[in-house]
């Protein structure tokens, strides 16, 4: 693998919506290895078994999609590692308050749906850079 084709790291995309996960996969796969999970439980298994740099996650995850408890719990898992993972949250435009709560839990930042591929890549690049500086 040449330096130009080497991936920058591994991103874990967590969302219960297949279309959102797919969109994020295609937005990030040219620069990163992208893993996908549809719940906090699946994401935690990846976090415990893989070398991940950044988690990109929705806050409303099963089994409690009506609130943000699962998303906040995932942030706590990711940030609680010996070398904390950076977390970027996905939010609907009507839930900025939830995104700010996620930032209080240690999320690096957030972006709003509908997803803009350039914005997503920019934020993930910044979070990955921050992760490399922290370890």
Counting H and I runs of at least 4 residues, what is the number of helices? 5
Count of DSSP strands = 5
User: Helix share of residues?
Assistant: 40-55%
Strand-residue fraction? 15-25%
Structural class determined from secondary elements: alpha/beta
Spatial order of strands in the largest sheet = 2-1-3-4-5
Question: What string, H for helix and E for strand, traces the elements in order?
Answer: EHEHEHEHEH
Shape: globular
Distance between termini? 24 Å
Q: Report on the biggest sheet.
A: 5 strands, parallel
Radius of gyration: 14 Å
Average pLDDT number = 89
Uncertain residue ranges: 1-5
Reconstruct the topology from this structure:
Blueprint: E1 10-14, H1 18-28, E2 33-37, H2 40-49, E3 54-58, H3 69-79, E4 86-91, H4 96-104, E5 109-112, H5 117-134
Parallel strand pairs: 1-2, 1-3, 3-4, 4-5
């Amino acid at each position: 693998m040449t330096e130009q084709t080497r991936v920058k790291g591994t991103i874990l995309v967590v969302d219960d919506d297949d279309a959102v996960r797919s969109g994020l996969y295609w937005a990030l796969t040219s620069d990163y290895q992208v893993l996908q999970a549809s719940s906090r439980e699946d994401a935690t298994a990846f976090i415990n078994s893989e070398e991940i740099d950044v988690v990109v996650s929705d806050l409303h995850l099963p089994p409690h999609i009506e609130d943000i408890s699962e998303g906040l719990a995932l942030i706590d898992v990711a940030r609680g590692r010996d070398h904390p993972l950076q977390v970027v949250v996905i939010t609907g435009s009507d839930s900025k308050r939830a995104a700010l709560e996620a930032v209080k839990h240690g999320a690096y930042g957030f972006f709003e749906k509908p997803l803009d591929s350039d914005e997503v890549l920019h934020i993930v690049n910044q979070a990955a850079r921050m992760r490399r500086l922290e370890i």
